Amino acid sequence: MTAILLVLLVALILVGVGFVVKMIWWIALAVLIVWLLGFLVRGLIGSDDRNRGRRW
């Protein structure tokens, strides 16, 4: 009986870790999209002379 509970506990932990890792990937993808949109917006709007010296 103890072995079955231990196996179920390990399975529950692994499922939880898998869910957290998947959520972290979705959050990383959202941050990447916002970051890329920031570069596009800065390129379209921020084309004045005062930002010219600070470009990467």
SSE blueprint:
Layout: H1 2-45
Organism: Streptomyces pluripotens
Transmembrane segments: 28-45
Keywords: Membrane, Transmembrane, Transmembrane helix
Give a written overview of the molecule:
The protein has one helix at 2-45. The mean pLDDT is 84. The chain is mainly α and 56 residues long. The longest helix has 44 residues, at 2-45. The protein has a domain at 17-43. The protein contains 1 helix and no strands. Helices cover 79% and strands 0% of the residues.
User: What's the N-to-C terminus distance?
Assistant: 62 Å
Q: What is the number of helices?
A: 1
Mean pLDDT: 84
Strand content: under 5%
Poorly predicted tracts of residues: none
Alpha-beta content class: mainly alpha
Task: Pick out its properties.
single chain, rod-shaped, 56 residues, mainly alpha
Short description:
The protein has one helix spanning 2-45. The chain is mostly helical and 56 residues long. It has a domain at 17-43.
